[in-house]
Amino acid sequence: MVAQPERNLILLGGPGAGKGTQSQRLAVRFGIPQISTGDMLRAARREGTPLGKEADKYMAAGQLVPDSVVIGLVEERLKAADTKPGFILDGFPRTVPQADALSAVLKKLGRGPLRVIEVAVAESVLHERLGGRISCPKCGASYHVKFTPPKVADTCDTCGTKGLITRADDKPEAISQRLREYADKTAPLIDYYTKAGLLKRIDGVGDLEIVLGRVVQALDG
Ligand code: AP5
Questions:
Q1: For atom 17 of ligand 1, which residue has the closest CA?
Q2: Which helix (H) or strand (E) holds 115?
Q3: For residue 132, what is the domain's CATH number?
Q4: Please, which residues have CB within 8 angstroms of residue 109's CB and are 6 or more apart in sequence?
Q5: 0.90 exceeded by pTM
Q6: Is 137 a residue whose pLDDT tops 90?
Q7: 140 in ligand 1 pocket by Cβ < 6 Å?
Q8: Cβ(25) – ligand 1 distance below 6 Å
Q9: Could you tell me if residue 196 is inside a domain?
Q10: Pocket of ligand 1, candidates 21, 76, 169: which has the most ligand atoms within 8 Å of its Cβ, to mutate?
């Protein structure tokens, strides 16, 4: 049997661009784990760990958590055996120092090259998506009250948990702050990965399966 090359993917895009939604689908399709730093930080917050308490101050205000905190989390996660065939990074890296640290970690671990997909969505659409998002408090699956509602009202399609919630950082003032953080600190990564010849951009607006098809085509093309 021919060994499959590693699929080491980054989904880049503004808050609400659909990174989490598409990462979950890609994880199933390719049989590789989704690594969401947002989900990891929210889990730490739920468990009340010192890291979770520290992160909460930043997350509730829509600010980025310090690089040193998230870099350590991702480095540990990438050492796990399930990432050997590849992984999908969702929400990391978000700053140039995080991207530099990721390159160094992958080199240290002897891992294959990265592919970066930018999921492009206009800011007005991001506001609308985040304003109507509801999430599963258990598995983190995301829905939208209008665009992508769950099959059964208030119930997670993925794990059956009842009582979908609105994230604290989906309040209007936190959404505006997250968009500012994205423009100031994360958008420079588009240039960073374009110059490295690793980035492809896809249109993130449209039916979920159509957007997924664009991502897969960009990866296979
Ligand atoms: P994180 O959880 O990563 O939040 P984010 O980047 O703001 O991304 P979101 O989860 O809000 O959006 P998404 O792109 O995943 O969209 P989704 O698929 O849910 O981070 C949260 C916080 O943690 C940060 O603010 C920061 O404090 C901290 N943090 C995390 N990582 C960090 C890092 N590396 N460094 C520092 N701090 C970090 O979709 C959104 C909505 O749209 C959903 O309702 C969905 O159903 C709907 N939708 C999706 N696709 C479509 C479509 N095609 N059509 C219609 N609706 C759609």
A1: 18
A2: strand 114-120
A3: 3.40.50.300
A4: 78, 79
A5: yes
A6: no
A7: no
A8: no
A9: yes
A10: 21
